[in-house]
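Good morning C.,

I know you're traveling, so I'll keep this short. The sequence:
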Amino acid sequence: MGGKQSLELFRFSDIGKSVVVVVECGDSRLVGGAEPQRYHSAFLVVESDFVSGRLRLALSDGDLDDWGRCLDALDAEERVEWPAGDRTAWLEVVPDDPVEVTVHDMPSTQIAVRVPIHFTDEWVEENRVRLERVREAVEL
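The tokens, ready to paste straight into the viewer:
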């Protein structure tokens, strides 16, 4: 596979608003010494009639694994925060009606934006499929 392939890791959206993470699957780098960790370039994108923004992320393979666990928690109607740590922007997802997705840009601007999203019943499964596509693409 040559070049970059942009794939959605997840999408929370309804009419007029969305929160999406897009991973540049052909753009990873190893960071660290004895046990280097692979990081992938990504963007967290918020779109609505009120606010739009785009934040650069660096996601590790561990972050992708953590997102899989977050989907399990969301399926069990538990609140999640992802990615862990304080190195990058992060989001909080509260599975309520509507689902509340809050994007936090704490290391940089210290701005947080909450986006209420009305979902279909299949939203967790749809995001599991997206995660698997990203995992397959970054392993090539």
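Safe travels,
E.
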